Every structure is written in structure tokens, then in C-alpha cells.
């Protein structure tokens, strides 16, 4: 394939947005995965007045607005700050992200761990804090994650992962580095957080002297060197229990215990639909964001809320759960096809058990870890627009490669295409 793709070097925030084909991308990182109904109303209103009328859920549990014009950036940021959705200063906003499992009870140990870790990261790992120690800021792709005791997020990538673990001989908190299966046990949240901070600072310092391009993720540096830190050496170490490292399947829409998980097609929420939903709920109702591009709501509150099937998914069997897509054209400068439109066309003809991702270019942005099939566009050596498909691990030699103009637009033709792709 003749494509040359450009990989963006940072993850956008409110204070450091990213320029896209359709305007600025502004990202909100919900504290402890939670946004109140009142805040959702404000956020939806800001999307309607300052951006595209849509809220995007990311696969790390963030929310972002697209299509923001230069003249709207300051007013949008002010609105987000006033609503308590983003920090009031740039230094805190540019501190590493702390993602959190949505599965916790208010003020339980998981919630307290995430709350304490978020405060510690903002204080000790912000660009200014590291600069005062003679180090450059951590890469924006570097992130920490607080999981629940069941480790529901073990399929989500993180540089440092912390969680509450029951029944571990007094070691109530665990830490793992990168994608390592080794766990370090600690008796208190403070000890686990201190260890995580020390590893992050070690990474910030060591990456400055790394040969070649500086690593942006911890696992890259761990391939060549290990942190010789007393907080790791003195901590009890143990391997994951058999089966514990198995990939965690995404939580699908539906009733889970007493709570509802509701999805939005392709993780894109219509702003008026969100306003309507949030407007039916008490202002302080928590609507948590999941890393599966869905929302978690209390079941008792959802009973009276209107949920249009055009905008929401409440059934795990909904075919739209089987597809995902990048932004695609015309929103992305590198996309060769309207990936989202194609994904929704393919959804009704994608068999159950298949997780299909559509990408507008070979960069494969937003590729979920559980994808079983990928369809992406590329340009051939002669400039011809091609559609490629195959399993995620074998895309260098796609199962099938056809000219894009051969892609049928009728449902029957799409069904035939999927059959031919052996997906």
C-alpha cells in the first residue's frame, strides 16, 4: 500500500485542544468517571452553541467535542470550567490522565483510591511539578488507571494500574506496571499511590536520556530497563492468578445489577438527546462514562427517562454494538472514506459475535482491543482507492482487497461483501 499516515503526537485536552479537519477537538476527562445530570445538561448546551451538536465518548472513558472554531475556544473553555468539568488552570489540565472504573459505590475504597490518586497526580506529575525537578512533561499518552476489584478494565491500556484487591493477606491494594503480569501489593492506598508516583517520575527522568526517540509509554522503556526503586523492591510481589490476565470483554448495554448501561451508536451522542435525558433526571444524578463508549446510570432513575432507539442502545443484541469506527471523512484530513456511515451500513449484516472496526485510513485510529475484524481504506500504488479487510493481527496482508467503488450501497450487496470477506 502506498499510504503515508501521520500519527498525532498528543491527546487533546480542554487547555490543549487538537486541530482537525472540521475544527478543534476539545476533550473532557471526567473525574472518577462521573458527570452529574446538571453537568451533562450544560455540556450538551455547550456542544450546541460552540461545537458540532454531538458528544463523543472515547474508548478511555473521556468525552469530547468536535468542530470548535477558533473564536469559540475561549468561551467554550470558560463554560467547561464554570461547570466544574475541567480544571481552572492549564497545569492541572495537562497532568497525566487518571481513568477510573465506573463500577464503584460512592466513597467506597475504589472511589477513594481514584480520588486520592487524581489529586496526587495533579500535584506531583503536572508539567510544572516535573519542571521544578529538572524534567520535561510526561507525554500526553501516558496515563494511570484505577480498576475495580473485579478488574473489569483489564483490557484497557494503562501505564500504571492500581486497584483494590480483597483477601490478599492484608495487602489491600495492588499496582502493576505497563502490560506486566507482575503485581506489587500494598497495605494502604497511600503506599500504592506513592509507589505509582515514584515509577512515573522514574519514567519521566529515564526517558530523557533514552537512545533514539524518547518512549511515550512505560512498557516501551521497560523492555530495556527496570526501575530500581525501594517501593517496588520491598513490596510483596506475586503473579496474576491463572486466567486473571484473560481479556475482559466489554460490558454491553443492558441492566447490570441495579444499574443500566446505555450505549450510543458508535459512541456519538446527539446533544439534544443528551439534554432530554439529563433533563429528566435529578440534577445530582451521576451518569458515569465507561471505556466502552457507553454510560452507566442508576436503574431507579432511568425508568422515567425517554430513550429513543435512534439515539440510544439499551439491548446487548442491538446490531450497532457489533461495529465501531474512527471519525472518518469529512472530519479527518487523513480519512479516505466516511467510516461512520459505512459502519452503520454494515451493522445490520454483521453476525453476532463479530466486533468489526471501520477505519478511514491504515492508521486504524480508535481500534478497540476486542475487535475481531477490521475494514480500512487505503490507496494503491496507482492511486486507486482500496477497501481492505481481515483479522486485526494480519492486516499487512488483508484477507481481501477491493476497489472502493465496488462497495455496494444496497443492503443485500453489503451482506454479500461481508460473506466474501469471511468475517
Automatic annotation (TrEMBL):
SUPFAM superfamilies: Nitrite and sulphite reductase 4Fe-4S domain-like, Nitrite/Sulfite reductase N-terminal domain-like
Domain of life: Bacteria
Regions that span the bilayer: none
One Pfam family cited in the UniProt record for this chain: NIR_SIR_ferr
Domain Nitrite/Sulfite reductase ferredoxin-like: 19-80
Annotated Gene3D superfamilies: Sulfite Reductase Hemoprotein, domain 1, Sulfite Reductase Hemoprotein,Domain 2
Keyword annotations from UniProtKB, A to Z: 4Fe-4S, Heme, Iron, Iron-sulfur, Metal-binding, Oxidoreductase
PANTHER family: BLR3264 PROTEIN, FERREDOXIN--NITRITE REDUCTASE, CHLOROPLASTIC
Record's protein name: Nitrite reductase
Organism the protein comes from: Comamonas resistens
Amino acid at each position: 500500500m502506498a499510504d503515508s499516515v501521520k500519527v498525532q503526537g498528543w491527546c487533546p485536552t480542554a487547555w490543549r485542544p487538537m486541530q482537525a479537519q472540521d475544527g478543534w477537538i476539545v476533550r473532557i476527562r471526567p473525574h472518577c468517571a462521573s458527570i452529574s445530570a446538571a453537568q451533562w445538561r450544560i455540556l450538551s448546551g455547550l456542544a450546541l452553541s460552540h461545537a458540532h451538536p454531538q458528544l463523543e465518548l472515547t474508548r478511555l472513558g473521556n468525552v469530547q467535542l468536535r468542530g470548535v472554531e477558533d473564536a469559540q475556544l475561549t468561551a467554550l473553555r470558560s463554560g467547561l470550567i464554570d461547570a466544574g468539568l475541567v480544571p481552572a488552570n492549564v497545569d492541572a489540565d495537562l497532568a497525566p490522565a487518571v481513568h477510573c472504573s465506573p463500577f464503584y459505590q460512592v466513597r467506597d475504597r475504589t472511589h477513594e483510591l481514584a480520588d486520592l490518586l487524581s489529586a496526587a497526580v495533579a500535584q506531583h506529575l503536572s508539567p510544572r511539578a516535573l519542571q521544578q525537578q529538572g524534567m520535561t512533561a510526561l507525554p500526553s499518552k501516558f496515563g494511570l488507571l484505577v480498576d475495580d476489584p473485579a478488574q473489569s478494565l483489564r483490557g484497557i491500556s494503562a501505564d500504571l494500574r492500581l486497584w483494590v484487591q480483597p483477601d490478599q493477606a492484608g495487602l489491600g491494594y495492588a499496582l502493576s506496571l505497563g502490560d506486566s503480569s507482575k503485581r506489587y501489593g500494598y497495605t494502604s492506598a497511600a503506599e500504592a499511590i506513592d509507589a505509582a508516583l515514584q515509577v512515573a517520575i522514574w519514567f519521566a527522568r529515564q526517558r530523557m536520556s533514552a537512545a533514539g526517540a524518547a518512549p511515550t509509554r512505560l512498557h516501551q522503556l521497560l523492555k530495556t530497563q527496570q526501575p530500581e526503586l525501594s517501593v517496588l523492591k520491598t513490596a510483596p510481589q506475586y503473579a496474576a492468578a491463572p486466567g486473571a490476565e484473560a481479556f475482559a470483554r466489554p460490558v454491553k448495554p443492558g441492566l447490570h445489577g441495579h444499574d443500566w448501561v446505555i450505549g450510543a451508536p458508535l459512541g456519538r451522542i446527539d446533544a439534544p438527546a443528551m439534554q432530554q435525558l439529563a433533563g429528566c433526571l435529578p440534577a445530582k444524578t451521576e451518569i458515569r462514562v465507561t471505556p466502552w463508549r457507553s454510560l452507566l446510570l442508576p436503574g431507579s432513575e432511568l425508568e422515567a427517562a425517554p430513550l429513543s432507539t435512534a439515539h440510544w442502545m439499551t439491548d446487548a443484541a442491538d446490531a450497532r454494538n457489533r461495529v465501531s469506527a474512527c471519525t472518518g471523512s469529512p472530519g479527518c484530513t487523513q480519512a479516505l472514506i466516511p467510516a461512520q456511515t459505512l459502519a452503520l451500513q454494515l451493522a445490520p449484516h454483521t453476525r453476532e459475535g463479530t466486533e468489526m472496526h471501520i477505519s478511514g485510513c491504515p492508521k486504524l485510529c480508535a481500534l478497540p482491543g476486542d475487535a475481531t475484524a477490521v475494514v480500512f481504506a487505503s490507496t494503491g500504488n496507482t492511486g486507486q482507492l482500496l477497501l481492505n479487510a481481515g483479522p486485526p493481527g494480519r492486516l499487512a496482508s488483508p484477507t481481501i482487497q477491493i476497489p472502493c467503488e465496488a462497495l455496494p450501497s444496497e443492503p443485500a450487496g453489503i451482506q454479500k461483501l461481508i460473506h466474501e470477506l469471511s468475517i
